[in-house]
Design brief:
The complex is a heterodimer. Chain A is an alpha+beta fold. Chain A folds into 2 domains: about 190 residues, Cupredoxins -  blue copper proteins (Immunoglobulin-like, Sandwich); about 100 residues, Immunoglobulin-like (Sandwich), CATH 2.60.40. Chain A is built from 8 helices and 14 strands. Chain B is built from 20 helices and 2 strands. In chain B, helix 2 runs parallel beside helix 4 and helix 9 packs antiparallel against helix 11. Classes of the chains: A alpha+beta, B mainly alpha.
Chain lengths: ~350, ~625
């Protein structure tokens, strides 16, 4: 046994190396190995503990296996069969007890964290409440305390607990921002979930839908923007300002008749589709066409207007199976009208 | 024709093997198509809809129609021999179980040609799997196909329970049973308790979809989370139903090729039963993110972690079986030796997943995909390959080529590690599962490509195996009774392949590893427990085939009862339940025939036995 502990001590530096190696994996705004929020950090600690235990277990088993496979090969002089061993009570007790102890070591922080992350902050005055509604294939975020609703980009102040209430409007989805917190399913009425997230720094984090929800499941992404408290207040105020209307009365008429029956912008419009207020300042169009105006300036991104035109020209090509009628085919919009509406939407910005 | 009417467990084993191999091939092709699509970001090799059909059918096919029947093939081929029986308890049911499984599987795969395969994932979570969101008949094929195939599994499980309880040779107490028989016994018991759950679930979903019921419809008082509970109350034990027989195979192979008895036999038995018991207690660990609340999540976390204890017992017992032994690395044993570290990898990630707060991150990502492929492919499939190579001579009287076997092993296991090891990291850096494509520059590109290359290497391994079978089957039958020289259990005491009646005289079992014991005492045969006498055999019958065909027709008819075919005749026979009724009439008719006409079977007479016994 002593020898084994010595081995573990010697392996210590290896684990430190391992955690560096792990944290070199993936993008900071996406990887679970580079946590940027309180919950994700706690989960990462648990992962590190578990991985360390498991590496020790694997090293022990693999070394015994390697030793056995090499040492006890059958040789030509082996005419007689080896001694038939029935078992060994002490050894068997030993390898029942060791896993039990290891499991216990993992179980204690597991239980602590289950309860910590299951905390309900919806009655906490300091927490910001957000109602998350998932739709095929987009996300709606409404802030009941501020009376505003937005889609796709969830704006939150940094270092503040955000209490989320999650519900789906159609099939089951799962709300997941890997670098901020693990996922929570969005269920139907009757099993509505609550959870919380907290970003410890300002930044933009990538969120994903993690439950198979249909053809465009892969494209049901969203962003969480963590900003300073001042910016957040500014954003709230900006979201409530009246929205400019389209100058050209003909286009304005088309927009009102064809788009606002489902979408809302500012005070006007319906709530079937994503809320379009401030869509020009979002990170992406339809969650997969990245805007070059966005904070990341990622490779492959295009100006928001171009992305809007691409989306409005053929939504099914961008996001198969989505519920929006095709502006050209179904609603009879011309290319010029699409261009004008895209232009207008691209200029609909909010400040923060 | 002989194959359609056979009730001989050895022939049914071969039928299961061929059918299972066929579906395994289909599932494998689906897997390769999935990997091609994911080889690079924003690929458009298949559409989003086709991709969802592929993943659904890959999972469903592999679990229910690929590995399950191969397990049943091994169980059928080996168990009666290992316990010293002449057949299974209910030969007629055995055949019925096979045919319902086959027709269920065929029905499920017909969906590819009849307007769309199931597309809601192999778990078919509601509401995605309801009519409102799954627009084709795909999920109907899923519910009805699996219902019919599941019937076969349940029948098979019951049959093995009865066989093992009642038909052991004199002297074979429970604690003298070979490990493979033990694990198959426990598996059969698990089938008995788990499959009724999925049967109920599938009935509810069928009712929702076809008859307009509202079990899962929220606006009418239903609840989609209910489906998840029902599914996983079956689904979790199912993974142990799959893996336990593989544990049994590994125990047999390792001890034979180390020339040592299994280390800690009684703790192995105890561990098997404990795994089965805990297997039923932990279904909710598939649902940590569903929102069951901290108390449930904590309890299910701990219960799940506890499974590591009996599993650890097994791993160390295998290692110590080899310790001090004389290990021969035949292909079968290579697979068994490869199984241990690979399965340990799958096991440790399993414990990691059991920690609920961490699982909020792992769940539904490629980390989980990596985990369960390590368990199911790295555990079960390696175990099945070990078992197939090990028992092939007993089943077919021919030894598979060792040279090809070794090529097969190395390509398969290297391909496997390449495919699935990187997927752990894909999941940890944020790639969710079941996505038909992904945007570039997320750090996913290279690892996905490696994974695809690995998958094709595994494909090569499987092809080498098929070539091996092809070449071997041309050789004459000539394997010895005990081709590995170190056989320990009863099946190695009789000719390969065994005669129809298995044992001319039922053997007397005088200890664990009965045949090894006799050999150690200097005997070349088992001591018989009865004089030579006429052997009663069941008659072959076509009825199981016809019964299953009837259910198949009824299922197909039921699925289209509310469809408009644009053809008045088709509309008439489907919409008025005429096809359904016809199918059920065929099934119940053959049941009636079976009940009305007593079939007493036939006898193999003594003199015939004496002539035949030596020849085979």
């Amino acid at each position: 046994m002593m020898k084994r502990w010595k081995a573990i001590k010697r392996l210590g530096p290896l684990f430190i190396g391992l955690s560096f190696m792990l944290s070199a994996c993936g993008r900071a705004d996406l990887s679970t190995l580079k946590p940027q929020g309180t919950v994700a950090a706690g989960q990462y600690d648990l992962m590190k503990l578990a991985i360390s235990i498991m590496i020790v277990v694997m090293l022990i088993v693999f070394s015994i296996a390697a030793y056995v496979y090499i040492k006890f090969r059958r040789k030509p002089e082996h005419k007689e069969a080896p001694k038939q061993v029935e078992g060994n009570f002490k050894l068997e007790v030993l390898w029942t007890a060791i896993p039990l102890v290891l499991v216990l070591v993992l179980a204690v922080p597991t239980i602590q964290k289950v309860f910590a992350f299951g905390e309900d902050y919806s009655a906490d005055k300091n927490a910001i409440k957000v109602k998350v509604s998932s739709h095929l294939f987009w996300w709606e975020f409404s802030y009941p305390d501020y009376g505003i609703t937005t889609a796709q980009d969830l704006i939150i102040p940094a270092n503040k607990k955000i209490s989320l209430e999650l519900k789906t409007m159609d099939v089951l989805h799962s709300f997941w921002v890997p670098s901020l917190a693990g996922k929570t399913d969005t269920n139907t009425d009757g099993t509505v979930n609550k959870t919380w997230i907290e970003a410890t720094q300002e930044g933009v984090y990538l969120g994903k839908c993690a439950e198979l929800c249909g053809p465009s499941h892969a494209f049901m992404e969203f962003k969480v923007k963590s900003v300073s408290q001042e910016s957040f207040d500014l954003w709230v105020a900006s979201m409530k300002e009246p929205v400019q209307t389209i100058e050209d009365p003909a286009i304005a008429e088309v927009f009102k008749n064809q788009c606002l029956s489902c979408h809302a912008i500012g005070e006007q419009g319906g709530s079937v589709g994503p809320n379009l207020t401030g869509i020009g300042s979002r990170e992406s169009v339809a969650s997969i066409l990245l805007n070059s105006e966005g904070s990341g300036q990622l490779k492959g991104s295009k100006p928001v207007k171009d992305n809007l035109i691409e989306w409005l020209t053929d939504p099914q090509a961008v996001k198969p199976g989505n519920k929006m009628p095709s502006p050209k085919e179904d609603l009879g919009l011309t290319d010029n009208e699409i261009k004008a509406i895209a232009e207008y939407l691209a200029n609909s910005k909010v400040s923060y | 024709m002989d194959w359609l009417t056979t009730v001989d467990h050895k022939k049914i084993a071969i039928l299961y093997l061929v059918a299972g191999g066929f579906f395994f091939g289909i599932g494998g092709i689906e897997a390769l198509l999935i990997r091609v699509q994911l080889a690079k970001p924003m690929n458009d090799f298949v559409s989003a809809q086709q991709f969802n059909e592929l993943i659904t059918m890959h999972g469903t096919t592999m679990i229910f129609l690929g590995v399950m029947p191969v397990i049943f093939a091994l169980m059928n081929a080996v168990i009666p021999l290992q316990i010293g029986a002449r057949d299974v308890a209910f030969p007629f049911l055995n055949s019925l179980g096979f045919w319902t499984f086959l027709f269920g599987g065929l029905l499920l795969n017909l969906s590819w040609f009849m307007g769309g395969a199931p597309d809601a994932g192999w778990t078919s979570y509601t509401p995605l799997s309801t009519n409102a969101y799954s627009l084709t008949h795909g999920v109907d094929f899923y519910t009805i196909g699996l219902q019919i195939a599941g019937l076969g599994t349940l029948i098979g499980g019951l049959n093995f329970l009865a066989t093992i309880i009642t038909m052991r040779a004199p002297g074979m107490s429970f604690m003298r049973m070979p490990m493979f028989t033990w694990t198959s016994f426990v598996t059969s018991a698990m089938i008995l308790f788990a499959f009724p759950a999925v049967t109920v679930g599938l009935v509810l979903l069928t009712f929702d979809r076809i008859l307009g019921a509202n079990f899962f419809e929220v606006s009418k008082g239903g609840n989609p989370v209910l489906w998840q509970h029902i599914f996983w109350i079956f689904g979790h034990p199912e993974v142990y139903i799959l893996i336990l027989p593989a544990f049994g195979v590994i125990s047999e192979v390792i001890s034979t090729f180390s020339r040592k008895r299994l280390f800690g036999y009684s703790s192995m038995v105890f561990a098997t039963i404990l795994i089965a018991f805990l297997g039923f207690m932990v279904w909710a660990h598939h649902m940590f993110t569903t929102g069951l609340g901290p108390v449930a999540n904590a309890l299910f976390s701990i219960a799940t972690m506890l499974i590591a204890v009996p599993t650890g017992i097994k791993i160390f017992n295998w290692l110590f079986t080899m310790w001090g032994g004389q290990i021969r690395f035949t292909t079968a044993n290579l697979f068994a030796a490869g199984f241990i570290p690979t399965f340990v990898m799958g096991g440790v990630t399993g414990v990691m997943l059991a920690s609920a707060p961490a699982d909020y991150q792992y769940h539904d990502t490629y980390f989980v995909v990596a985990h369960f492929h390590y368990v199911i492919v790295g555990g079960l499939v390696l175990g099945l390959f070990a078992g197939l190579h090990y028992w092939w001579p007993k089943m077919f009287g021919r030894i598979l080529s060792e040279k090809l076997g070794k090529i097969e092993f190395w390509t398969f296991i290297i391909g496997f590690q390449l495919t699935f090891f990187v997927q752990h990291f894909l999941g940890l850096i944020g790639m969710q599962r079941r996505v038909f494509t992904y945007l570039p520059n997320q750090g996913f590109d290279l690892m996905n490509l490696i994974s695809t290359i690995g998958a094709f290497l595994m494909g090569v391994g499987v092809i080498v195996f098929l070539v091996n079978i092809g070449i071997t089957s041309r050789k004459p039958v000539g394997a010895a009774n005990d081709p590995w020289d170190d056989g320990r259990t009863l099946e190695w005491s009789i000719p390969s392949p065994p005669p129809e009646y298995n044992f001319k005289q039922i053997p007397l079992v005088r200890g664990l590893d009965a045949f090894w014991k006799e050999k150690a005492a200097g005997h070349t045969e088992m001591t018989p427990s009865e004089p030579v006498g006429p052997i009663h055999m069941p008659s072959p019958t076509i009825l199981p085939f016809v019964m299953s065909l009837g259910i198949f027709i009824a299922g197909l008819g039921f699925m289209f009862t509310s469809d408009d075919f644009g053809n008045s005749f088709l509309n008439f026979i489907f919409n008025n339940y005429i096809v359904t009724g016809l199918g059920l009439a065929v099934t119940f008719g053959s049941m009636l025939l079976r009940s009305l006409f007593d079939d007493h079977g036939w006898h193999i007479e003594e003199d015939e036995l004496n002539g035949k016994g030596v020849k085979a």
